[in-house]
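Cross-posting from the modeling subforum.

Setting up a comparison between two proteins and wanted a second pair of eyes on the formatting. Protein 1 (sequence, then structure tokens):
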Amino acid sequence: MFALSLLVLGLAQSALSKTVTYNWSATWVTASPDGFARPVIGINGQWPCPTIEVDIGDQLIVNLHNGLGNQSTGLHFHGLYETGNNVMDGSTGASQCPVPPGSTITYDMKISQGGTYWYHSHNLGQYPDGLRGPLIVHDSSAPFASEFDEEITMTLSDWYHEQMPQLLNTYESASNEDDNKGLEPIPDANLINDGQNRSIPMLPGKTYLVHIINLGNFVGQAIYFDGHPFTCVEVDGVYTQQHYLGTENIRIATGQRWSFLVNSKNSTSTNFAVLSVLDINMFTPPAGYNPNATAYLVYNEKKPLPKSVVLYGFDFFDDVSLVPYDKQALMAPVDRQIVINMNFGVLNGVNRHVSSFLSYVIRFMLIPGLRALVNNVTYLPQKVPSLYTALTVGGNYSSNPKVYGVNSNPYVLKYGQVIEIVVNNLQDNLHPWHLHGHNFQVLERPAPQSGLFPGTYSNVSSTPMRRDTIMIQPSSYVVIRFRANNPDKSTS
């Protein structure tokens, strides 16, 4: 009877699934989200870029035309595993070639994961220049599906007035090392929903499922809803045991997503502020710098908007303490451990001894020339994407790391193995790391200044939190585990 029920459910979901198609052209648009007008990359002549909305079981098709004229492009669908379909991952240099100006690519994927995701360019600095947007997968079988009435999607982002090609050139230059100690460019503004002072309509007596996405470039964010406590139900597409957060601040690293249940007020007599704050632990703000962005929960348009909330300190909730809804047990035994020492070093005479700007991007966009080092190797893009190499070298050569090039920093994994990765952050700054094609269990992420992984574990949960993007503390480490079950080619 149980098997029959599962079969009926599967047939019902199949019958309800549909094909959702987006026909897009990436184009240059002028926008001024903080009052400063500059060129941005939009979709079909519009910016902010649209939200993709699909249901579990749908077939998502995105036809992307490159109408930029002066840059190649592509799209990565951040957090979607693309199981058995890695050619659709959209990572230029890893799973596809860049799409040249005037050309079109079709991304075609079956949606099998519910939750909060986003899409962005994987070329150059295009997503901080605007080519990014939310991707929401509705799931009627989510454990909290019956507990909310409405949905809200909010994006957070640092923002720069200079375009990324110029910022990258400046950042990587010897003069930046001489004049600015190699420090990263500081964002000019902070945005909520790609703007400032946005209004978010609220109805009284409702429960909202709020999706929050940090689709910024560099800086983590703290988020606060005045008078509206959070209950966490999802991180990075992983449903969690409901966790009441109250008024604790949430640190949202670039690339991370959270979903919360938020109860609206029963009265429409007052409107409330939403505050997002750039994490100034990651840079030194100049005098008079404003790291804040404000939006408003508007119950009554005839009532005045409140003054912006001021936070005088951060009380960050530790997301490692979350428990996945499915309570997946700690993966063991470990078949292979990989130790990664992340640093910035000397390349072509330019020293990156304190820099963290775009270290996150090295995992995302694979920009040439970054002086970030992984085990003393800096990534250089390959002429042939790594996936194409794996599919074409023939024989057993695809299991030989040498065929992928030294500066692709390859690790060849065996299907089904439990992989443990230790990332030692040798820099005195926070760093986000993201894994494509999987989520991972977070065993341990100690406090700042904890030093290198000592080789032993402490306080590891039997049901560790899982997500696909993690913020590593300064001069500290993280230990994660995942199962290598998403091969780049057939396992036969």
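Protein 2 (same layout):
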Amino acid sequence: MLNDILSLLPFSSRSRHVLSLDTPPRSLSPEKKVPSNLPPPADYKDIFPPSARENLKKAAETCSPAQKQKLTDGPLNEAEFRKSIMPFEADYRTCSPPAYTSTGFSADEIRALGDFPDYAELSGVPLPEHYKDFKIETALARPYRPFRWAYHQTMSLTKMENDWWLELENTYASRIAEREQLFEKHGKLVLNCLPGSELGCKEVMEMALQFLCARYPQYFQLSYSAEKGHVFHNGILKTETVTRDMHPLHVLLHNVPEDFAVMLRNPEDGHYYFRAGLLCSSLGWNVDTKLGLQLKDIHKPIPDYKEKMEFSMDR
């Protein structure tokens, strides 16, 4: 969307014939090396994620007249865009024009959209339906059975059900309290961010709060005033969060019992790097050990990752 947060393409595996260890492949003489099955290194520097600029006009309909004057749905100047990508560690709030994200939005346009823009229009992903019969006191987690079939090492991508991105259950309050305690005890091991992740963190937080307000309006609301800006009202915890007074990851920490990892595209090489995260449930690692690493380096300990998954994940 505004700032590309890791986009992945479907991964499919191809079966391979098992070769005998006693003799070389029939197509090769014994003195020749067996060719590698790995694809050649790919250059992603000039490959960009899909743009959603065509949705800018619709998203601007909910903006004020002053904001609309700064927004345009005109075609992107490709030459200017390619030479004006925001540096990896740049803060969109202070970038001088021309400056663009890798999805083709200018820093001026992002600032004009302001806080809590219409992400449903910008992304093309509709908000969830109101869950009218939901009661937090009796809500149970939906069963998750990842190993119903024979296991194959793939990216395991499935189509997201819009209504079930963020699920709540009757342990909501205790889980939020537990996550807050983990942060108090471990700090940057569970929550941290690097320069340049400001927009990605803001986008994730705002999308999450918009989702909760649309899915569970009986418990969550967003209000706005000139004095405080946007305020998130949590009817379960009986709290109010002034979003502009708190880092987006801390807003999530206090209201959303889910883990978030923000992967951002580096314009210098086109690869994705772990730039910010709120992770309280990781096993064998923590935010501090992986922050700043490229996708392939994060997964280096995983057996067969390089041979079977690295190319598809990077692509």
